[in-house]
Amino acid sequence: MDRDNKRARAAASSSQAREQAREPSTILSLTEGPLTQVAERLVTANPRDTARNLAGFKGLGKEARTAIRGSQPGQETELAKFERRGNQLGRSAVELTWKLTSELGYQPDNVALEQVRAVSNIANYLTPHMQDAVVNRIGNMDPASQALGALNVAPNFGKFNNENQSRILDQAVELMSDPNGNIRMVAQNAIFQAYHQMDPNQQAQAHAVPGLEPILRQMPPPQHAQERHADLDAHIAGLEAAVHATGTQISYEQLQRGGLIGQAINRSYSQARADLQESTRNRDRGGR
């Protein structure tokens, strides 16, 4: 009887070992195809987070790097193409940030207002420290300029991190009780501009401002037409050249042009991400 039990236990143990050998023990045990799908899920709407996600994933080892770059020499995978484009845009955004924020803390308020307006277009590329510096600069202005600062960054409210979103909203809400009617009007418009980028708690905070709730509840979300470029790589190269040509001398025209370049960087990232998502859908449909 004992001998039979030992044989049964040995057979069960051997079967379990074979099953475990067939199952991936870590994420890197996956084959290239499924591992690539894991990497694709690390791509988000936030370019800075995405770059960090993919860099961390590649740091797992050779298998992870192959999942992004592919195993065929000379052939660029769709994910590798996206990463290359994202890196190019990221470098341009970093250089543009440095030029748009030159001496931000020392410029007069009227110049600083244009600087924060321009750089807010690439707020999702900024480090947390630089985001803090932009919002701090607004907070160090007089109330009238603070209201304009909140209005200037409001179209890009969603590009800031949660902490700085809260700080921008708090500034605008506080200014809604200012005795100066013009300041209240500008602060109100800032809240309107940012409203559809707010999370539910932030929207509730905006609703609590006396007189705003009836207006906010009837505000339709803005419509954004997605611009597309037939040759996105050439467009990204053109943006790189435009950033290189942007100087650090501060003028209204230069800051306005820099802000437009920042908008184009974000639109290009959105198209690159959309192209990757479309290629993924096509691959998945083809695999059915």
Kindly provide the radius of gyration, computed on alpha-carbon positions and rounded to a whole number of angstroms: 25 Å
**Straight-line N-to-C gap:** 52 Å
Strand content: under 5%
Please outline the major beta sheet: none
Report the uncertain regions: 17-25, 27-32
Helix content: 55-70%
Coarse structural class: mainly alpha
Region (Disordered): 1-26
Walk me through the structure.
With 288 residues, the chain is mainly α. It has a domain at 29-70. The protein contains 14 helices and no strands. It is globular, with a radius of gyration of 25 Å. The protein starts with a helix and ends with a helix. The model is unreliable at 17-25 and 27-32 (pLDDT under 50).
Secondary-structure blueprint:
Elements: H1 2-22, H2 32-40, H3 47-58, H4 62-69, H5 78-100, H6 109-119, H7 128-139, H8 143-153, H9 162-175, H10 181-194, H11 200-207, H12 213-217, H13 232-245, H14 252-286
Helix pairs in contact: 2-4, 3-5, 5-13, 5-14, 6-8, 6-14, 7-9, 8-9, 8-10, 9-10, 13-14
Give a quick set of tags describing it.
288 residues; globular; mainly alpha; 14 helices
